Description:
Layout: H1 2-19, E1 23-27, H2 35-46, E2 51-56, E3 59-64, H3 67-79, E4 96-103, H4 110-121, E5 126-129, E6 137-145, H5 146-155, E7 161-162
Amino acid sequence: MKLTTLLSTVVALALSLTAHAESSVTIAGVHNCCKKCDTGILNAVKSVKGAEAKTDGGKVTITAKNEATVKKAVEALLEAGYAGEGATASGGSDAKVKSATVSGVHLCCGKCVTAAEKAVMATPGVTKHNATKGAESFTVEGDFSTKDLIAALNKGGLNGKVK
Length: 163
């Protein structure tokens, strides 16, 4: 009888732990240079019901009740203008363009602008940009592919939409 009770307790405990299991992902290399960046990251993730984030410099750990919610939180992070290893956007074209408008990049301070500039100027064929602090969008010029531009921004811990 005692063995049956013990087994029942162990099974109940295992089921309880399974029911409360969470899903999480850690994203490294996220641009996070100041308190405004940190707040932007946390608020982006928190905008997804049931998700939360912890930051440690450029590392963001997102935790939620299930994998689908974690995925939505990662998408919210990208939408807020951040990226990192394991959270990058795809898109753009291999075709060369002379100019493109980039929007949605998190540019709260001079350090953010410097990070964006470093990423943009690392894109093969880019000759100039006009990103500024607080800008909602900026223009990139040269002879480059938008696919390479998005990849460079993501490598720099940032994300944006290119038109």
